[in-house]
Design brief:
- The protein is mostly helical.
- The protein has one domain (6-89).
- Helices cover 81% and strands 0% of the residues.
- The protein contains three helices and no strands.
- 8% of the residues are buried.
- The mean pLDDT is 85.
Length: 90
């Protein structure tokens, strides 16, 4: 019965780990871009909804790539940041 050397076991383990890491890195950017696209779409919807509701109180938040990306990346704190910055700029 042949015996397996410890170096062979470590090499196979290391090779599998490297292949897994390369596959994970190849898939990760696509997932990040998909998540950013989904969050950007949701940010546009939130900005439109805020614009409709904000008409009654005189609040209007601009819909442009900067505001959409801020809200898409930061979420609710991003929406509050955009609102505060817009109020300070007026």
């Amino acid at each position: 019965m042949p015996q397996i050397q410890m170096e062979t076991v470590l090499f196979v383990f290391f090779a599998v780990a490297v292949i897994f890491l390369i596959a994970r890195l190849a898939i990760s950017p696509a997932q990040a871009m998909l998540k950013l696209l989904l969050n950007s779409t949701l940010a546009v919807v939130v900005l439109c909804f805020t614009g409709m509701i904000g008409e009654y109180w005189g609040i209007h938040l601009p819909i442009n790539p900067v505001t959409v990306l801020l809200i898409a990346i930061l979420g609710l704190p991003g929406l509050l940041l955009v609102a505060v910055l817009y109020m300070l700029m007026i």
